[in-house]
Design a protein that fits this description.
379 residues; alpha/beta; Rossmann fold; 2 domains; 6-stranded parallel β-sheet; 44% helix; globular
């Protein structure tokens, strides 16, 4: 029985972005271990048939001693589990697994999933540039394995890391996001109501464009005061750039947004709105929320940021505006409010685009083929 080891930062991200792949691997006869920091889903994952192992990942910075502790824990786990394939997801797991594998004599096939390069590859501050330089050096070492596949979600990340790590064509594959279940995220025609509903759902971080969304909401409401702006998600207390709850409460009190907090009924929410937005300037892969919006047949307003612009066909399934530009965001909203025919047509085309590019079944099949290909090369 082949052993598949997932290394992920945290359990909720695994469930939202990689669970269908792991479940199919189980069906295919793999023994699947999920190693991450667990919040509240450990028992549920065990009941699904997975082996679970706690790792001391911190998603924000951490002390040097804690990072070495994490590296040591990963090394001990790999030596103990003796996996047939390792699938690392997000920045730290990819880097740490790659570094640890350089210290182990056994040549274990390695899948490195690049779900966005994060803030340092898009920011221009001195600290970000320094971090980018260091990260580039680490990526170069971490991805220097012969029997590997690096999964990219967008061409921008692929171009950057191909140059950094000198990747060959046979080392990499493009899979645009983690997909959406098209039977769950259905296309339901817009509800005919006298006002427009716009939704933004994400981790509530500055880089996700929350402040620009608020700025745009204020501008739109001067012309269309009944427009309803929904904000969905929760502050990320482990991230120094989180939006504060006090700020959210203030926006609610001022009548700018309706705040829904964390929600597990996103398909229903998107089916009830007219437009979905994510004005991110973060180092995205392909944002899952935009994939889900397309599957629901909703017009999207996002940015030209790499990853975000991969989730739409500009002027066909949505509109892309410059990052960090609240007025341009407002103008895009106003355009779609004033043009219901264009908005509805965009939604129809978005669903077709999702069926072609974002079906979770195709995403799962691609991953299973990657595992089998790496195992075949190992033999």
């Amino acid at each position: 029985m082949p052993k598949l080891l997932f290394l992920v930062n945290v359990d909720w991200f695994f469930i939202s972005h990689r669970l269908p792949i792991a479940q199919e691997a189980l069906k295919q006869g793999y023994s699947v271990t999920i190693a991450c920091h667990f919040t509240e889903h450990k028992q549920a994952l065990k009941e699904m048939g997975f082996n679970v192992v706690e790792l001391p990942f911190t998603r924000s910075g951490g002390s040097i001693s804690n990072e070495f502790k994490t590296l040591k824990a990963i090394r001990n786990l790999i030596k103990q589990e003796q996996p047939s394939v390792i699938h690392a997801v997000t920045i730290k797991p990819v880097l740490y697994a790659g570094l640890v594998l350089k210290t182990i004599k056994q040549k274990i096939p390695f899948v490195a999933a690049i779900s966005g390069l994060g803030y340092v590859f898009t920011a221009s501050t001195f600290r970000a540039k320094l971090t980018k330089f260091i990260a580039s050096m680490v990526y170069k070492v971490a991805l220097a394995h012969k029997n590997k596949t690096v999964i990219f979600q967008n061409r921008s990340d692929e171009k950057i890391l191909t140059e950094v790590a000198n990747l060959k064509a046979c080392d990499k594959v493009l899979i645009k996001g983690s997909g959406a279940d098209l039977s769950v995220y259905n296309h339901i025609p817009e509800i005919n109501r006298p006002h427009i509903k716009i939704a933004m759902a994400c981790r509530l971080l500055r880089e996700k464009g929350v402040y620009q969304y608020i700025e745009a909401a204020k501008a739109v409401k001067t012309q269309f005061p009944n427009t309803q702006f929904l904000l969905i998600g929760t502050p990320d207390l482990e991230n120094p750039n989180t939006i504060k709850q006090s700020e959210i409460d203030k926006w609610v009190d001022e009548g700018i947004i309706d705040y829904l907090g964390h929600r597990s009924d996103i398909p229903n929410i998107f089916s009830d709105v007219n437009i979905v937005s994510l004005p991110s300037f973060y180092g995205e892969g392909v944002p899952k929320v935009l994939i889900e919006a397309a599957a629901c047949g909703r017009a999207i307003v996002t940015t030209t940021n790499p990853g975000c612009n991969d989730a739409i066909i500009d002027n066909e399934t949505g509109l892309a505006v410059p990052p960090m530009d609240g007025q341009s965001l407002a103008n895009a909203f106003i355009q779609l409010i004033n043009s219901p025919e264009q908005r509805i047509e965009m939604g129809i085309k978005a669903r077709v685009f999702a069926e072609k590019e974002f079906d979770v079944k195709a995403v799962v099949d691609s991953h299973i083929k990657i595992y089998k290909g790496l195992l075949d090369n190992k033999l």
